[in-house]
Every structure is written in structure tokens, then in C-alpha cells.
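With this grant's support, we have settled on a layout for protein records. An illustrative entry appears below exactly as we store it:
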Amino acid sequence: MTDPMSGVDTWWGEVGNAALLGTARRAVPDLPDLGPAGVRPREVPGPREEALLEAAALGGAALRAGRRLDHAAPPAAAPDETRPVAPRRAVQLLELVLTQPPAGAAQRVGLLVHWLRAADDAGCRVPPVVLPLLLGMATASRELRRPAAAVLGERGRWLAALREEWGWVAEATAGAEARTASRLSGAVPAADDWARLSSTDRAAVLASARAVDAADARALVESTWSTDSARDRRSHLEALRVGLGADDESLLEAALDDRAGTVREVAAELLDALPGSRRAARMAERLRPLVHRTGMLGRGVDVTLPDEPDPAAVRDGLGKPPPRRSARGWWLEQLSAGAPLEVWSELTGADPATTVKRLTDAQQPDVLAGLRRAVRARRDPVWAAALLERGWDATLVPALPREARERVALQRVDATTDRVHELGAVVGAVDPPWSPDFSVALLSRLRASKVGSAMVLATMPHLLAGLHPVSLDPLERWVAEAGGDQALSTNLRNLLQFHSVKRSITEAFR
């Protein structure tokens, strides 16, 4: 028996040529023999135009089926669905985003991710009619794979199994189911289930499990630690950032002796975030002899560079410096990052703001670099504010409380109106979603700027992710008054459409 689908690609190409050139110039190719599972040609051929339409219908159906019929026996039926299909209004919005993205194709993935996550939170699935298109898009965009796998439904998973390029669905589904079960049941996966997950899904499941029960999640890491690859051990340590606490110290201390340098580096970085750890105490003991108060009133600060580290110090992170770095300066930065911040107030006899003022950039750049690392790791708001008074550093802003975060970002926006290239980092320092006040205030500043078009372009990714729905009204007024600036009008219109559709998606699942 010949392959029933041999030459189907060639046939489909010929159908396209006939449609393009016209049936008067190009004959419609005969329908291929698809066997018992296929379609038989007419016994009495009809007009060429009808033959072309029949061929187009057959080819379209074959493409939507998601599988080439390489044998006559049809596949088993898909299992019964366990989730309801998404509400009608939500489905309409999904079809719109898939086929005619309102804010342009560049923003389609962001809107799709929002739709898929909203559907998963609502316990819904995508309708069968969009499955092939969604699977194709998720195949091309890894960002879509996990959220799509969670809402494909039984038919979607069945369909994906019939096509080789959709093979990623099985792996992504296992991770999605484990994450969903953890979220809904409030339970950490069993060790056996954890061991069967792929490396990619383990990291995602571990992050969810840490939010449920940090201790049980850490136990999962320890259960496979001895057999995991260095890459997985590093990834699992990275996931411990969620809910990191003193109880994680023993695992991190042991990881300082790991055979892989990348694992040791992450362990030391995480221990930097634990100022009450044994390593922090050791770093403080090494730092104290290096810091001296100077001047008649003791208001100056002098910090001596450390000597060659012993093996214990190397284990704690005082190893080989990065390229083009002074070894002793690097060791001083490591000590400053690892020791408790309170040690500096103890040694200088001053509060954080005064201590920072006494450390000059020229004399103590390595100390300041270490202090910034410590503040970022521990999210210490007092020291973050002290360092920000000294100079802008977007990486310190997340350590501040939400209101202070937004306040300093707006102050920086006011100070950088002539340095548009910096605005992206300034606005990006405030994690989304933004508050109503910050959203409206930021739009007001962008609109008032003489280079508003450039500022909108520089901050567009953050505006898409962070704007609060309350800012849509002032955004609409800005669009109406944008004038002849075509680039500005286009960007504002896309921004408005993106957030309007995003809000509609959220409301459609309520």
C-alpha cells in the first residue's frame, strides 16, 4: 500500500499556484488519495472553480487537523474535558489577539500571556477552534509554552501528541499540572513526583513550592542534590531566593564546598542576604581590623585593603577576582558585601547616612560596591536610602518601600529629562503593577516634556507592563491631543489599545 500522503506538499503547492494564477491558466491538481480516512474525488468532475474550492477546503482541513494521515486508521478519540471552555467574551478577545492583535504584532505575546494566565486562574481552557493556531505560536515563542500548556485542555494535549513539533506540550503540561496542584492544594509535590520532572519545570515548581512551605521545598532540593547536575544544583539554589531564611543556611554552607564553582558563587551570594549567618560573622571578623576612624573627632573613615586570604577565607568567597579587577580591592568588596551592615555603624559610630557620607568614592569604591551588593541582597530600606542620597542607583530602588520607590523614581525622571536614554532604567526600577498615583503622575511628566515622544519610546516596555487602568482616561486625552507627531500618536495608540484589551480580558473572566 502506498503512503496516502506522499506528495501532499507538492499537491498543496499546486493548489496555491492555481489560486494565484487562476484556473483558466493553471489546472487544478487532482485530489490525492487519502485512503479510507480521506476524501474520494467526485465521480463526475465539476467546473474548475468548484474543484479549486474543494481542494482548498480539503487542504485547510488537513492543516487544521494537526497531523498528516500516514495511515488509514484514525487516532483514538480525545479524552473528555475536565475544564469548562473560557467565557464567550474571553474567547472573542483571544481570537482577536491571535488574528488581529490590537496593539500590533509586537505586543501579541504579552496579551496572550495575560489571557492564558487569567484563564488558568479561572480554571478554564481555550476553545478547540483556536488550538492549532495557539500551538503554532507557542512553538515559536517559548514564553507562551508554560501558560499555554496549562489551559490546552484534554483535546489540546491529544492534538499536540499527533504532531512532532508540538512535542514540547507533554513536558510543559507535567510542569503546569505540578504547579497548579501545588497552588490549589497548598501542598509541596512528593519527592517521587519532583524527581520525575524536567529540569526546567523543577525550577518553576520549586519557586511555587517555596511560597507554600519553604522547609518542604528545600527538602526536595536536598533529595536529589547528590545526583543533580551542576547546572541543576545552581538553578535550585537560585530558586531558594523565594522565602530565603536562616533555615536555609546549612544547605548553603554545604554548597560552599561544592565541586562546581558556579554553585559556590550562588551559595555565597545567597549567604550575603543572611546577615545572621555564620559566614556573615566570619566576614565581619575579617573586616573589623581593616576599618579605622580618623581625625581628631573620629569623623573620618579609613579602610585598609586586606592581605592574602587563607583557605577558609577563599572558601567564603575571597577567591580569584574577575578580569581587570584588583585582587585586594575585590576581596574588600566581598567582605563589605558579606558582613552585617550593622558592623559599619559599630565601627564608625555613626548612622548609615553619615557613614556613607564619610566613605569617599575616590578612596573607598570597593567598600561602596560591597555595601550596594549587601543592600540589594537584604533589601535594607535605611541603607538603600542612604546610598541613594549619595547618588542614583536603580538597583537600590527595589529595597525601598513601595511609596518611597515611586517617589524617588519620579524625582529621578524630573532630573533626567535631558538624558532620555536613562529613563528606561529609572522607570524600570519600580516593579509592576504600578499604583494609580504613580501611573498618572508619570504620564503627566512624559506629556509635559518637550521630548515626550522619545521618552515614551524609551519607557514603552515598562509602560506596557506597569500602567494602572486608572491612567487610561488621561492616556486617551493625550492621544486625542498628540497633534502631528505621527510616531508619538502611534505609540500612544498602541499603548492605549494594549491596556484596554488587557483590562477587558481581566473583566471577561470575572
Observations:
- DSSP finds 27 helices and two strands in the chain.
